[in-house]
Amino acid sequence: MEDIKELISKLHPLERRIIPVLRGTNIFSELVRKSELKEVEVMRTLQWLQAKNVLKISEDVKEVIVLGENGRLALEKGLPEKAFLESIKSKAKHLDEIEKTAGLTKQEISACLGLLKAKAAIHINSERIVSISDHGKNLLEKESLEEHLLKHIAKVEVSIPELKAEEKFAFENLKKRKDIIRTVLKKEWTVILTDIGKKLVASNISSEKVAEKLTSGMLKTGAWKNKEFRGYDIQAKVPRLGFGKKHFVNEAINYIKKIWLEMGFKEMKGGIVQTAFWDLDALFVPQDHPAREMQDTFFLSKPGKGRIIDKELFNRVKATHENGWTTGSKGWQYKFSDEKASDNLLRTHTTVLSARTIATLKKTDLPAKFFSVGKVFRNETLDWKHLFELHQVEGIVVDPEANMTHLKGYLREFYKKMGYEKVRIRPSHFPYTEPSAEVIGFHPIKKEWVELGGSGIFRPEVVKPLLGIEVPVLAWGLGLERVITAYYQITDLRDCYKNDLEQLRNMKKWMR
Amino acid sequence: MPTITVSKKGLLKQIGKHMSDEELKEKIIFLGISFEGLKEDEVTVEINPNRPDLLSEQGLGRALASFVGTKKGLRKYIVKNSGAKVVIDKSVEKIRPCTACAIVKNLKFDDEKIREIIQIQEKLHVSFGRNRKRVAIGIYPLEHIKLPIYYKALKPDEIKFQPLESTRVMSGGQIISQHPTGKEYGYLLEGFDKYPVFIDANNEILSMPPIINSHKTGKVSEKTTEVFIECSGFDLIIMEQCLNILVTTMADMGGKIYSMDLNYPDKKRITPNLEPAKMKVDLKYVNKILGIELNEANLKLCLEKMGFEYEAKTKKVMVPAYRTDILHMIDFAEDIGIAYGYDNIPEIIPRVATTGEEDELEVFSDRIREILIGHGFIEVKNYCLASKDDQSKHCNQNHELVEIKNSQAEERNVMRSWIIPTLLRTLSENKHREYPQNIFEIGAVFKNDRDTKTETGVKEEISLALVMSSEEIDFTRIKQVLDNLLKALNLNASVEETIHTSFIKGRVGKIITDKKEIAVIGEITPEVLSNFGLIMPVVAFEINMTQVFNLLKNKNEN
Q1: Contact flag A429-B48 (C-beta cutoff 8 Å)
Q2: Is A502 within 8 Å of B433 when comparing Cβ atoms?
Q3: pTM of the predicted model, to two decimals?
Q4: Residue of B493, B508, B473 whose CA lies nearest to B555
């Protein structure tokens, strides 16, 4: 009995409405009718009860008789044979006339003739004049079996096995006629109570004392004192709640920015559209370098050209390219093109921000440390490991005392916070750094060495024209997306920016 | 960057030492060369553009032999003078003015060696030669050539020879228009009324650079033991560097190098010149950059490991003639660092006190994000590169945009000037997802700005756009969000009716503060929605964040 009490205390209001009805019927359609609930509500409630082992739902398929198109018409206007007899009730008529007065089609007339002759309800002579017989008059007076059946099935659902003998006869007759009735297969459910169910149905489940919701009214009046609160199924799944969220790449960016800020770096910001002068020439990239080819860089057509604002700086960079200027370098020993320098492009690296920053520094500002996280652009075909628009993390240390040991130190510290315990550098090449080094880290999940980014010390040919003096500038840059995708379990880089709301809603938070 | 594949056996022979695959791989990587793979006898590596001297089995082997210590220091190459002349005519001056030439004898070619020579030539063409624009290389069997050789320019129809990979004699013009190589590189001679050619003393055309050699006189075969090599282009220094790389590679194959006398109209020159260049190195400078403490003996050892010679007396480094990448003393510092081993350089975090500082506009943007996320909005992040149609036509707009010259796709042929179209595109890609869809984005927008004195003529600003889409959405809902935002920012703003063809007439307003228009807000027109394939109402606003930021900053300062 304790079980039953427990069960009763947790009943849902819908269950409380269905259970008393179960005393009277075990057929689904009846339950719907008597409970005055919607079909889905009844079905859902029965499923809950089934889950609680109160009952079992069994499903039957039965053939049900429903009205056809002509059946519906007949119900409104009467069956054609009735109209036929009606039109000759007081006077024998020619067939053509009957057709008009009874409002029947030719087919209906001929069907009625056959039917009424067989029942000896009419006489027809050689001039096609039809008169009604006594039996016919009788028929007209009373409701036919067919009419009775039609009315019946219009009211309730009738399945074939439920038909009485005379109904069966009418059913067979009607079935022969055109679309008066149809049969359809229909599912019906019946409910079988279990032992628990039987006890439950016999119990008093009166809900007067059980409250569904605690309301402010109850609190005001103190009515809650007499109530018991229905226990919920707290394990039931609940619908998802929508909520606001930062983009997951921005979460990672914020973390990375924090690392540099904590290490005393200032953030650099600047334009995405740059002249080739700043993006490439100022970084001592030779003007015929393969990376400057059209296919690697997005150039602008509108506006295609920019302007050179600092002429003196421009001339220093130009001289450095042509003959090394006063940097002690041989330079590239070619004729520098002012035309190429003024091409507008989308920055290919945030190193352009480093160049611009160095150009604003004075000797008294040193030592100085800067970082940026910004978009860069590569004119590549989009595929799973290439983006044409991506983020670069960039850092520089402008310090007269800086050297390679510091470069290794800063990188170790940064990558440790990114989850890479083991970091090495190996020789590499970039046009604007010397020495140049590639950073590799031992991937904690993939268990292999992976490339993490480029680094080095800016060449004197880069620093001196910008700063006026030769000072070592440690520099590094890495592609952001590549280092965060493992955390987010993304294998296709394009998934970083597909902006699928389902993906964004479900993405886990950055928790480093 | 070019990738080359060389024979492991050949490479180890050059190195002069047996090495395991693992050891070889490690040495290649820590010499600064990108290792791409090792399969049976084939080693594949990627060569950085600053080291064209490594583009062959011989060059790679030479550098590795020094690095592992089997053949340290400067390689000596003997150059004898052949006495043969190359006469350069004034007619090439405006077309392709420079050449550097040499003869190499005592060669033994087989199929394999010929393939190697072709690979070196091709890789040099692509990288150092910038696809033959800067340098084009020709290699000819000397046995078919009568010296001296002439380099001059002729009218296209005066040029007649059977080019390589062709069965018939063609004119200069026909080669450009019909021969596959001519079609590929013909643009390099576009606009000239004469084409350059090398001709021998028999008046036989050897080649038409930078396009193709003659089949008769310009095809190396297994019988060839002596070759004539020329490099042509625009800069004599570059030509000589390229020639030096080629002849030293052939000398490492067993060849003997002979120089030639070049008679330019205005000067005489003997090439190749393999005298090492001498450049000063300062031990203190190197130590300072690397953060290590080498003594002079260590310095010498390190330099020798990288194929240089150090002269203690003069403190100078002798640089091999094939090293084209040494421009400055800093380049020695890197090579010394590589020889010392990057792994052996210690790691130090210096105690340099500097103050970290985040960009103010970034901080501001992040605060705005917080407010919107608090309202239940999801932040999206799209590309700044956008589709011109989405930005203008699909939004019933027709304004000037910042356009890309060489985009590969129509979805990214302009820089976005506003973000709402980008968000409409995002909504249209999420039609199958749960509604309501309330999203925002903060990012850069770009406008043509020729009148002001900006450097690029492009004005970049940070913009915030927000869209809400669901069956129940209307102007009231989005205005509530905007009100809350303006209130949080302590901004007094008024909404004024305006005409904006992306929004429903009478349901669009501009937001004015301090007499400046800072935002637009409204319900998107059904026409625009259907242009984006959307079947759910959308309300939107877009605020110029840079402007708001500056307004607030001024207000706080006053």
Answers
A1: yes
A2: yes
A3: 0.81
A4: B493
Q: Is B279 on the interface with A (CB under 8 A)?
A: no
Thinking of the domain A249-506, which architecture would CATH place it in?
Answer: 2-Layer Sandwich (3.30)
Mutate to test the interface with A, among B123, B351, B358, B462 (most CBs of A within 10 A): B358
Separation CA A44–CA A201 (nearest Å): 18
Average pLDDT over residues B414-429: 98
Buried b (16+ CB within 10 A) or exposed e, B68-106: beebbbbbebebeebebbbebbeebeebbbbbbbbbbee
Instruction: Flag if A288 and B133 touch (Cβ within 8 Å).
Output: yes
Q: What percent of chain A is helix, strand and coil (3-state, nearest 5)?
A: 45, 20, 35
What DSSP character marks residue B431? T
Q: Domain spanning A69-185 has what CATH number?
A: 1.10.10.10
ipTM of the complex: 0.93
Number of continuous H segments (helices) and E segments (strands) in chain A: 22, 18
Check whether B558 has a pLDDT greater than 70. Answer: no
Helices (H) and strands (E) in chain B, counts: 16, 28
User: Model confidence over B408-420: pLDDT tens digits?
Assistant: 888 999 999 999 9
CA B398-B403-B408 angle, 5° bins: 120
The domains of chain B, with CATH numbers, are 3-68 (3.30.56.10), 79-271 (3.50.40.10), 277-344 (3.30.56.10), 360-557 (3.30.930.10)
Alpha helices in A311-399 (DSSP H): 311-323, 338-341, 351-360
Distance CA A459, CA B330 (A): 7
| pLDDT recorded at residue A294 | 65
DSSP annotation of A223 reads: G
B37 touches chain A (CB under 8 A): no
Enter the CATH code of domain A2-60+188-216+225-229: 1.10.10.10
Token pair belonging to A510: 């950055």
Cβ of B456 within 8 Å of Cβ of A303? The answer is yes
- Cα–Cα distance measured from residue B507 to residue B503, given in angstroms and rounded to the nearest whole number: 7
State mean pLDDT over A323-336: 95
> What is the rounded CA–CA span in Å between residue B138 and residue B209?
8
Q: How far is A151 from chain B (nearest CA, A)?
A: 44
How many whole angstroms from its chain centre is CA B374? 45
Burial class (CB in 10 A: 0-12, 13-18, 19+), B519: buried
Contacts with B186 (C-beta within 8 Å, 6 or more apart), sequence order: B176, B177, B211
Task: Report the length, in residues, of chain A.
Answer: 512
Nearest Cβ partner for B354 among A302, A369, A428: A369
User: Looking at the DSSP assignment, which residues form a beta bridge with residue B212?
Assistant: B208
| Cα A204 → chain centroid | 46
Q: What is the pLDDT of residue A16?
A: 86
Query: Stretch A56-63: mean pLDDT, rounded?
Result: 88
Q: How far apart are CA A474 and CA A491, in angstroms?
A: 32
For residue B377, which residues of chain A lie inside 8 Å, CB to CB?
244
Query: Are A504 and B378 an interchain contact pair (Cβ–Cβ within 8 Å)?
Result: yes
* Domain-wise residue ranges, chain A: 2-60+188-216+225-229, 69-185, 249-506
Q: Give the pLDDT confidence of B279-309 residue by residue, as tens digits.
A: 999 999 999 999 999 999 999 999 999 999 9
Could you tell me if B469 and B436 are in contact, meaning their C-beta atoms sit under 8 angstroms apart? Answer: yes
- Computed over every residue of chain B, the mean pLDDT equals 94
Contact B383 A389 (CB under 8 A): yes
Report DSSP letters for A386-439, one per residue.
Answer: B-SEEEEEEEEEE-TT--HHHHHHHHHHHHHHTT-S-EEEEE--BTTEEEEEEE
Mutate to test the interface with B, among A259, A277, A302 (most CBs of B within 10 A): A302
| pLDDT score, position A144 | 80
